[in-house]
Design brief:
The protein has three helices and twelve strands, in the order H-E-H-E-E-E-E-E-E-H-E-E-E-E-E. With 193 residues, the chain is of the alpha+beta class. The strands form four sheets. A four-stranded antiparallel beta sheet has the order 2-4-5-6, covered by helices on one side. A four-stranded antiparallel beta sheet has the order 8-10-11-12, covered by helices on one side. Strands 1-3 form a two-stranded antiparallel sheet.
């Protein structure tokens, strides 16, 4: 009968030699996690308190680790216009199950309407409202919710639309005017007074 002996020492020594000079970090992340719905709800509450309109916020399906100096990017949807904004929620303080965070909403929507139309065409009033929001937020220190009369707006230079928005001081009337139209490209411009 033949027998073979195996020596494990050289194999173990070889493994130690191969690992020499490598740096490893072993640890367990003990940061608390919360369901995304909790963060979405708290962020929507805060934004509603600040601007008077409750947005829809989607932070995904996975639990969120809550650690100081970390952030998560969510999607905010304005219920009045359907405009979508990237929103970064940054955790500033974490103490056990208690945490504080800052909210930063992008200035430019991901789905900004393209102001184009065929000659003689009309566009949904929601397109005009979205363009008015984009124009107004450049001069206001908040993003207003704009509401305009009607359901369709004829894209003809000089057409006006009566609109309004809420400011911290109350309702503000505004007039949106179609100021230019390029029949070749279909692009048009507005002015908000």
């Amino acid at each position: 009968m033949r027998s073979r002996s195996l020596t494990l020492i050289p194999v173990a020594a070889l493994a130690v030699t191969l690992l020499a000079g490598c740096t490893f970090s072993v640890g367990v992340n003990t940061a608390p996690t919360v369901p995304p719905e909790d963060i979405e709800e708290l962020a929507a509450d805060e934004l509603e308190e600040q601007v008077g309109v409750r947005p829809t916020i989607d932070c995904g399906d996975n639990d969120i680790q809550v650690e100081a100096d970390t952030s998560v990017t969510c999607l905010l949807v304005d219920p009045g216009t359907g405009l979508e904004f990237n929103t970064v929620i940054s955790f500033t303080e974490v103490d056990g199950d208690n945490y504080a965070f800052d909210i930063q909403v992008a200035e430019v929507p991901n789905n900004a309407p393209e102001p184009t139309a065929e000659p003689g065409a009309s566009v949904p009033v929601g397109d005009i409202e979205a363009l008015a929001i984009t124009a107004l937020k450049k001069v206001l220190d908040y993003v207003p919710e704009v509401t305009c009369e009607g359901t369709e707006v004829a894209i003809v230079v000089g057409t006006t639309v009566a609109c309004s928005y809420e400011s911290p001081e109350g309702a503000v009337d505004a007039v949106v005017t179609i100021t230019a139209f390029d029949a070749t490209t279909g692009r048009y411009e507005i002015r908000v007074d």
